[in-house]
Amino acid sequence: DRTRPDYSMVDTTTYEAAGYVIVQQTLFDKLTVNGGLRLEYNETFGTEWVPQIGLAYRPTQEAVIKASVSKGFRSPTIRELYMWGMGNLNLKPERMLNYELSLGHTFLDGLLSAELTGYIADGSNMIAVLPIEGKPTNVNIGEFNNKGVELSLKWYATKNLELQGNYSYLHMDEPVMYAPEQQA
């Protein structure tokens, strides 16, 4: 058992580094393609390639349809591994595939904009805080499939005043702390 039930101090260092490159190209005047590649290095968990590709299509000047697919990767933080009473040295990195589709539109000569986005995240090893033997502990929760939608509104009320609103709904197969089902 490599959980840290005690409250002793830990003096540790973790080395991480990452680099990212993105390429974006407009094709056929209405279609933009972008691709990115991130290389992450963590001395404990090794090297991970994290790719992303996206498309944006503008059928009119006011409307845009966007789609993307990306890989997600996150190593456990020092806090998640070693935090007093909650740390867990058995944690594995989170991995996922994200799929996203959004529809955006501007109104009133660009003074008002709205965007509706739907997404799916399929992954493994999500790190969550769960009660283990009555104590909150960081654990990997295994496979997960999260789905959600977001609605964003933006209004340029004056030259110097911008108002924004956002609503999101998240459905998680296994709900975890700090991830509300609805936010506004």
From TrEMBL:
<keyword id="KW-0675">Receptor</keyword>
<dbReference type="GO" id="GO:0044718">
    <property type="term" value="P:siderophore transmembrane transport"/>
</dbReference>
<dbReference type="InterPro" id="IPR000531">
    <property type="entry name" value="Beta-barrel_TonB"/>
</dbReference>
<feature type="domain" description="TonB-dependent receptor-like beta-barrel">
    <location>
        <begin position="6"/>
        <end position="175"/>
    </location>
</feature>
<keyword id="KW-0732">Signal</keyword>
<dbReference type="InterPro" id="IPR039426">
    <property type="entry name" value="TonB-dep_rcpt-like"/>
</dbReference>
<keyword id="KW-0798">TonB box</keyword>
<keyword id="KW-0813">Transport</keyword>
<dbReference type="GO" id="GO:0015344">
    <property type="term" value="F:siderophore uptake transmembrane transporter activity"/>
</dbReference>
<keyword id="KW-0812">Transmembrane</keyword>
<dbReference type="Pfam" id="PF00593">
    <property type="entry name" value="TonB_dep_Rec_b-barrel"/>
</dbReference>
<dbReference type="GO" id="GO:0009279">
    <property type="term" value="C:cell outer membrane"/>
</dbReference>
<dbReference type="InterPro" id="IPR036942">
    <property type="entry name" value="Beta-barrel_TonB_sf"/>
</dbReference>
<keyword id="KW-0998">Cell outer membrane</keyword>
<keyword id="KW-0472">Membrane</keyword>
<protein>
    <submittedName>
        <fullName>Iron complex outermembrane receptor protein</fullName>
    </submittedName>
</protein>
